[in-house]
Specification:
Length: 297
């Protein structure tokens, strides 16, 4: 019997842009660093672009001043983290880094430099029929990262104040859909480790779509075997089988179960070296009522 290696991140990277959602990402990253006893690298990148009408001499002077202020930027980053996390910051191993580069490239470079095991970042939200869309930075990081990416947004059932240092996110219920692919096997390994560390309930739905020859009983039996292999014996687990369109069922289950996190697997497209999002992954990322952890395979 094959057993899963547990997901135990040693270094967590949290890019911040000082927005409300990146502050929320910081709170999730701090919670993860605390339970896993991991080092938290707080990172800020901003590409300096001088005005096109400046002379070469003026541009050179601006660049010199900008580089001289990088240490001040790190000091501001430290103060910002302390303001958002309060005394909890003293209990963490924190590193601070800034970069003068495009945020996507800088984040991926920092992830490699620090041998990051997990990236935690926020996305941009909006109202209307399409409640959530992925900003260009988050979208490109998710597609290109070689490590899991925790995509943060406010949960529908529990608002977390980012201005209150004492407010901290909870992971009481984790939803990890399984379609019996190797990507979902990797996602399940991560979900089990998170459920164990956060003492959370793990709900594992298997959605039987049209064309799938498995019956519900067979799917539940196979999923139960996967949970045993994943070492989920110490977790409060619930197996669910549904028929229908996968993304719709996953989003619906996440809302009904008041899930605090959805864990999804993603396949790699070898030719373009990017993560291939199926319709299910992209739709869940856009419409899930809770944060989503994307696990690359």
């Amino acid at each position: 019997m094959n057993h899963f290696e547990p997901f135990l991140p040693v270094r967590i990277l949290c890019p911040v842009d000082f927005s409300g959602l990146s502050d929320l990402a910081l709170k999730y990253a701090a919670a993860g660093a605390r339970v896993f006893d991991a080092t938290l690298v707080v990172f800020h990148a901003h590409r300096f672009e001088p005005p096109a009408y400046f002379t070469k001499t003026q541009v050179a002077e601006l660049i010199r001043q900008h580089r001289a202020e990088q240490s001040q930027a790190r000091d501001f980053l430290r103060r910002h983290v302390r303001k958002r996390l309060g005394a909890a910051a003293d209990q963490l191993r924190l590193q601070f880094e800034t970069a003068d580069a495009h945020p996507v490239d800088a984040i991926l470079k920092a992830a490699g430099k620090h041998r990051t095991d997990l990236i935690v970042l926020g996305t941009q939200g909006r109202g209307g029929a399409q409640r959530l869309w992925l900003g260009s930075v988050a979208e490109n990081v998710i597609r290109r990262a070689e490590v899991p990416v925790f995509v943060v947004r406010q949960k529908q059932h529990e608002f977390i104040s980012t201005s209150d240092p004492k407010a901290a996110p909870r992971l009481a219920t984790i939803l990890c859909p399984v379609n019996f692919s190797q990507a979902s096997r990797a996602a399940l390994r991560h979900a089990v480790s998170l459920a164990q560390q956060f003492n959370a309930q793990l709900i594992t739905p298997c959605v039987i779509e049209s064309g799938d020859s498995r019956g519900m009983t067979e799917a539940k039996r196979e999923l139960a075997a996967w949970l045993v292999e994943a070492g989920a014996g110490q977790c409060d687990t619930q197996i669910v089988a549904r028929k229908g369109q996968a993304a719709e069922q996953i989003v619906s289950l996440a809302a009904v179960a008041r899930a605090d996190l959805v864990v999804l697997g993603a396949h790699r497209r070898s030719s373009l070296q990017t993560w291939l999002w199926g319709d299910t992954t992209e739709l869940v990322l856009r419409h899930a009522p809770a944060p989503v952890l994307v696990v690359p395979h």
